[in-house]
Amino acid sequence: MISALFFLFLNHASALSFYNPWTQAKVLNPGQSHWAIDTTFESSRSKSNYPNTQVSTTWEQLLANSKNPQETAALEAKRLAAGKSLDDTAAVTQYELQQETTSMNFAWSYGIYKKWMIGADLPVVLTKQSIQAKSTGPAGADIAATAQQQLNDVGIYGDKTQYSDQRVGDVSLLSQVQLWSLSKWTFAFQQRVGLPTSSQADDRNLFMTRAGSGQPNFGGRLLATWQQGRTWQLNSSVGYLWQIADQVRVRLPDANGDVTGEIESGVSRDLGDIYDAQLEGIWRTGIFDWITSYRVIHKEADRYQGTFVEQARYRELGANSEWDRQLVSLGALYYIGNLQRAGVRDGYSVLVAGHWPIAEQAPLWSLDLRMMF
C-alpha cells in the first residue's frame, strides 16, 4: 500500500522551508502569514462490524437455507465430495467497508510575535462508502450472492447499496509557542482545539471521516528541531489528542452484533484518545529539499453508553475501533522562481512525497494537491 502526496506552494519570505509549519519547533516571523488550500483524494478499506466482522456458515445451515431441492442436492454432493460433516464450516463471509473521500482543507497560519504563531483549519469533505460481502471456503461461491443480498436487505443505506455525504467539517484552532533555543536545538509547545462545527454524521456513515466527528477535542504537542546550518534539519514531536464525550444518534446492533433498524438519540459517545509520535528529517540541496519521516499513531477504543438497550449492545458499537498505525514517507520539495534572496527562500515550490502505511487499517492510497501562498 502506497500513498502519494503532491503539494504546490507559493511561500512568502521565510527563514525556513515551511512546507508544513506545524511539524517543526520553529515559528513564522511576526506578521508573516501562510494560506493553504489542500485537496486530498483518499481510498480506504476496513473490516466492518456491520452486520458482523466475520460470519461462518456450516454445511447444515447452508443446506437448511437452500432454495429448492435441486440446489440442496448440488450442495450435498459438494459436501460429500469434500469429505465434510454437517458441522464443518462451508463458507466464511467477511464484511468489508470501502470508502472514497475527497476533501478540501483551508488552512491559515500567522506569526503573532517573535516566538508565537497561530492558525486554523477548515475541511470540506465529500464521502462515498459501501459495504461488500466477500465469501470464501468450499461453498463460498454458493453463498456469496445470498450474503450480499442479505446485507442489502438490512438497509444500512436505506434503499441504496452505497452512501454519499457532503459536509463542512470541524474547525481546528492551533497555537504554537517557541519555548527556548539551545545551540542547534529549538523547542516548542503546540496546542489544538477542535470545535464541533460539523453537523453530526449521518447514522449510516460508518467511517470517521476527514470532516471530523462533530465531537470537541483538545490536543497538545511537544516539538524539538535540530538544525545544522541550512543543510540539515531534524524535527521530532510527541502529541496527545483528548476526545471529549458528547451525545449522538446511532444505529444499534442486536444481541448478535447484527445491524438493525433501531436508532437511538442521546447516546453518549467517546471516540477514544489518540497518541502519536513523529520523526522527520530534511536535507536541503540547492533547489531540492529531501524529506523523510516516520510516524506512529495509537487510537483508543470508542466507548458508547445509552439507556435504550442493554450495555453489551453499546459496547458492540466500539468493537475493533482501537488501532495502531505506522507511516513511513519519503519526498522531494522542488523550488521554482527565486531560490535565494538575502538568504531567504521565496517563490513557488512543489513537494512530491510517497507514504508507505505499515498497518492494515491505513488508507490504501491518497493523493494530495496543495497550494500555499
In short:
This protein has 373 residues and is mainly β.
Task: Give me some keywords for this one.
single chain, 373 residues, Porin, 13-stranded mixed beta barrel, 3-stranded antiparallel sheet, disordered N terminus
Could you give me the name of the CATH homologous superfamily?
Answer: monomeric porin ompg
Q: How many strands in all?
A: 18
Low-confidence stretches: 1-17, 207-211, 338-346
Main beta sheet: strand number and arrangement?
A: 13 strands, mixed, barrel
**Percentage of residues in helical conformation:** 10-25%
Order of neighbouring strands in the sheet with most strands: 1-17-16-14-13-10-9-8-7-5-4-2-18
Q: CATH topology, anyone?
A: Porin
- Counting H and I runs of at least 4 residues, what is the number of helices? 4
Approximately how much beta-strand content do the residues carry?
over 45%
Query: What Rg, in angstroms, do the CA atoms define?
Result: 25 Å
Distance between the ends? 31 Å
Helix-strand sequence? EEEHHEEHEEEEEEEEEEHEEE
The shape, in one word, is elongated
Structural class: mainly beta
- CATH architecture classification name: Beta Barrel
CATH C-level: Mainly Beta
Q: Please state the average pLDDT score.
A: 76
Please characterize this protein's 3D structure:
By secondary structure, the protein is mainly beta. It has one domain (3-47, 102-130, 158-372): Porin (Beta Barrel), CATH 2.40.160.40. It has 4 helices and 18 strands. A 13-stranded mixed barrel has the order 1-17-16-14-13-10-9-8-7-5-4-2-18. The chain has a 3-stranded antiparallel β-sheet with strand order 11-12-15, covered by helices on one side. The longest helix has 15 residues, at 140-154. The protein is elongated and about 80 Å long. Residues 1-17, 207-211 and 338-346 have low confidence and may be disordered.
